[in-house]
Write a structure and sequence with these properties.
Elements lengths: L4 H4 L4 H12 L9 H14 L7 H11 L15 E6 L2 E8 L2 E4 L2 E3 L3 H8 L5 H4 L7
Antiparallel strand pairs: 1-2, 2-3, 3-4
Length: 134
């Protein structure tokens, strides 16, 4: 597919889905937002002429994406960073000794951060993808 990168920015969701199907030959993953569709498509269209991602990296991604992941949450260590996109905005939370920093403010847990971002009562670990819903 010869799709100009500039065109991706102006596409509506149905055009993005059609472009995804043409580029990847697979259905769009569930719950993938339009901004992420744009980023994935733009990256892929630019990367393919240069050989794409290294094979070892692709294998690592495939392994990480498997459904047989352990149900336990990863240990959060100081220096870690959580990134979550919500309503088109990317939110970055830094893990520090004794808590979390978001927007320059310290929090003891992730739940108040999730509530501040969404305006609803969310489980912080669930919102940031550390705990599977169930």
């Amino acid at each position: 597919m010869k799709l100009p990168i500039a065109e991706i920015e102006t596409m509506d969701r149905s055009a993005l889905i059609a472009a995804w199907n043409e580029v990847f030959g697979t259905p769009v993953p569930k719950r993938l937002s339009s901004p992420f569709l744009r980023r994935f498509l733009a990256f892929e269209i630019q990367a393919r002429p240069h050989g794409g991602l290294p094979k070892g990296f692709v294998a690592s991604l495939t392994k990480a994406a498997r459904e047989d992941r352990p149900a336990t949450s990863p240990a959060l260590k100081p220096g870690g960073r959580l990134i979550r996109e919500w309503n088109g905005a990317t939110h970055v939370v830094d893990v520090v000794e004794g808590g979390f920093v978001w927007n320059g403010q310290c929090y003891a847990s992730l739940s108040p951060i999730a509530r501040a971002i969404t305006g609803a009562r969310w489980s912080g670990p669930r919102f940031f993808g550390l705990k599977q819903s169930g």
